[in-house]
Amino acid sequence: MRLVEHFEQGLDAPICLTWELTYACNLECAHCLSSSGRRDPRELTTEQCEAVIDELQRMQVFYVNIGGGEPTIRPDFWHLLEYAVAHQVGVKFSTNGVRITPERARFLASTDYVDVQISLDGATAEVNDYVRGPGSFDTALLALQNLQDAGFRDAKISVVCTRQNIGQLDEFKAIADRYGATLRLTRLRPSGRGADVWDELHPLPEQQRELYDWLLAHGDGVLTGDSFFHLAAFGEALPGLNLCGAGRVVCLIDPVGDVYACPFAIHDQFHAGNLLTDGGFRQVWQTSPLFAELRSPQTGGACTKCAHYDACRGGCMAAKFFTGLPLDGPDPECVQGHSELALAGARTIPAASQDHSKATPTRNQPVMLKLMTRPPVSDCAESPLAGFVPDGG
Ligand code: SF4
Ligand code: SF4
């Protein structure tokens, strides 16, 4: 059996488990996939988190992606990190960098099995801070500097690709090289607050091509996870997991212990259970009816007629769901243009199941800044296809 077929049927334990430790965040990014901002009072206690780690160790989950919210603002974050590593669960954590002081950077440099991923959504402060909030570019770069000064090797720089930063791919790579880091590009999804900014920020069709060409040219030194397999419909496949792993090899534990099929699918429809009330994580992973369904053979729907189906497999389930498209049809960013009809027709965008956004503006009030401080020189400065009517191809 090919590896991909094993993956389609699901594994005994996830190979890409994300655990969001808190919904609290010092920032309030415009496209936050978990609509983070405020802590949920039901968030797991330190002891409950330790029990989760114990269970992951028993399941032989060798590493976990920790995120949030901003995980480092949990007072027990550093304890849980050490607890995980001591229990043979490696940690890769995502942070906006706010707590990566020189001292913490030295501690991180002294650990094994810990990887740090700094979020940066613009290669310039103007582009980054537009979505992530004032000062967040400087914070991220200071964190990278502290890590480098401390001798931490190969930090990751995690970039959500948007309409505004696709033109900065070379600059992102240069920043990564400057800090001895590796660039990780991910796809913007219309999940959480990402739904509110999707129409404005998701890359234009010609930018999808630009991104694809760039990844083909630079892909070896750049991480992408399963982000861009929908681009494989341009031709050659890209490195990475070329299928939707939701509930098969991917899942999310949220701060209150709810388990979802994927970090980008925080919605009742993709809720598999709760590890406090449904017998623990292993029980949810192995017996949830939702996961059984996701692991069963899928029909490709309208996509099965497409010559590129084997490469693209209809794209991302979460992107379809949160744009109100059928799950067995084309991705909203189908590079062959096959979602255009459905996008133009009647659709119901699902309401969010939860929202942890801050009720009142905060110090780092982000959403949205004013990006253009002066008008573009011409329409073409913003879009090379400005003024052209697409021919529907
Ligand atoms: S739903 Fe989308 S983001 Fe989640 S695993 Fe599937 S393809 Fe990846
Ligand atoms: S029609 Fe479906 S399989 Fe074909 S390229 Fe579009 S999303 Fe991919």
What do we call the CATH topology? TIM Barrel
How far do the termini sit from each other? Answer: 37 Å
Ligands in the structure?
A: iron/sulfur cluster
What would CATH call the class?
Alpha Beta
Helix content: 25-40%
Largest sheet: 10 strands, mixed
- pLDDT averaged residue by residue: 89
CATH superfamily caption: Aldolase class I
Count all strands and give the number. Answer: 10
The SSE string, one letter per element, is HEHEHEHEHHEHEHHEEEEHHHHHH
Strand content: 5-15%
**What does the radius of gyration come to?**
20 Å
Unreliable stretches (pLDDT < 50, length at least 5) are 372-393
Count of helical stretches: 15
Return the structural class.
Answer: alpha/beta
Structurally, how many domains make up the residues?
1
How are the strands ordered across the major sheet? 7-6-5-4-3-2-1-8-9-10
CATH architecture: Alpha-Beta Barrel
What's the arrangement of secondary structure elements?
Layout: H1 3-9, E1 16-22, H2 46-58, E2 63-68, H3 77-86, E3 90-95, H4 102-109, E4 114-119, H5 125-132, H6 136-150, E5 156-161, H7 169-178, E6 182-187, H8 194-201, H9 205-218, E7 222-223, E8 250-253, E9 258-260, E10 271-274, H10 281-287, H11 289-295, H12 309-312, H13 317-322, H14 340-344, H15 379-382
Parallel strand pairs: 1-2, 1-8, 2-3, 3-4, 4-5, 5-6, 6-7
Antiparallel strand pairs: 8-9, 9-10
